[in-house]
Amino acid sequence: MFKLWISIKKDIRILLRDKVGISLMFVMPIILVVVVTSIQNSTFQLVNKNKLSIIICNTDTGKASKQLIEAIDKIGMFKVSQIAKENAKAISDDMHTTDALLGVVIPSNFSAEVNTKAKSASDKAMAAFSGQADSAATTVKKQPGSIDPLTLYYNPVLQESLRFSIQGAIQSALQLVQTRQTLRTLYYSSNEKELPKSLENEMLNSNTTINMLPTSKDGTRVTPNASQHNVPAWTIFAMFFVIMSLGGSVVREKVSGSFIRLKTLPTNYLVGLLSKQITYLGVTLLQAAVIFSMGIWLFPYLGLPALNLPSDLLALFVVTLVCGWCAVSYSICVGVFANTQEQANGFGAISIVILACIGGLMVPSFAMQGLAKTMANFSPMHWCLQAYYSLFLEGAKLKDVLNNIGSLFIITIIIQFVTYLGLKRKNLI
User: Fold this and answer.
1) Does the N terminus or the C terminus of the chain have fewer Cβ atoms within 10 A?
2) Domain range annotation of the chain
3) What is the pLDDT of residues 247-286, one digit of tens each?
């Protein structure tokens, strides 16, 4: 134990002299987590809280187009503004001028065609009621076809999933206008008087409500926020970036002959490797503590959502410990095979970014397809992130993340074995 303690003190002193390595391990992840969380939180607010600005160019003069604009406004997800009909051709310029994300052009014959379609549907229904379906079908064929399509302009920054939601919302508003006009025409055809407003609202308004409640494995209903997504992800990135300090330290000791001198001393090489693992494992735990603390106490002062820790703190500690051990093992492995400090730093930085990409830190793994999704299973960051997400986003317990921990443990053992083979091959042990 004395030899191990002395070796740990030596590694701590070497670490404290590496000012650049310390800044990369702490300052860079802190900046990343603040910046990325701020950007993603703004995106969440744009989608979830702020209304999407939309300009409508109404080239129609009938009632149906006005009802359509009212229906779009009542959806609740749009901030509607109208422009003069003579600007229809320049709607793209108007969108840039007003910073609108969406633009809609209502065709000039919209109301007329809505009325025509409603009359056609009403005549067909009345003919069916009276047993004259064949003559009604002949009459319908002589009438104009479907309504001219609306033209929807959108800003390319809008994601495809959001565009589909917008299209569905506007389609619902359009369907409401057509259904209302069909009901009015049908009621007038059968009663020869206008449809009462109260009856119209009763027929069109649904009393069935949809309760949307988030659920999780621990039974809580806390909705995850941008901090819950980003803090664990960039904590993992920070852990693996200890390679910039640890990998270089291993290379320096190889070049200086420290591993060879250990053979002449009454000690074992395992003591040196174990001390490095313990020292830098402590660094990874400190990184997690610092970044998590920022998410809990600092983020609210920066206008960001506070980080909500999972209820199972033991599971959080175990996951952090295993993730840190894997990061340290990978760093030592790279240091053993690198011949120079430049090789260790260059390969280490590039490999960490690649592992982060295929592991889901940059692009969510659920969005990956084919080969990329298969490759994600070989990235230790993928299993780290899945374990953290289960704890932070789903309220999982320790038993729920054992599969992720087990996969990460197997990867770590493989890395340790490869490191041992590298040491034997280079006659360092």
Assistant:
1) N
2) 2-44+223-425, 51-204
3) 888 888 777 776 666 666 666 667 777 888 899 999 999 9
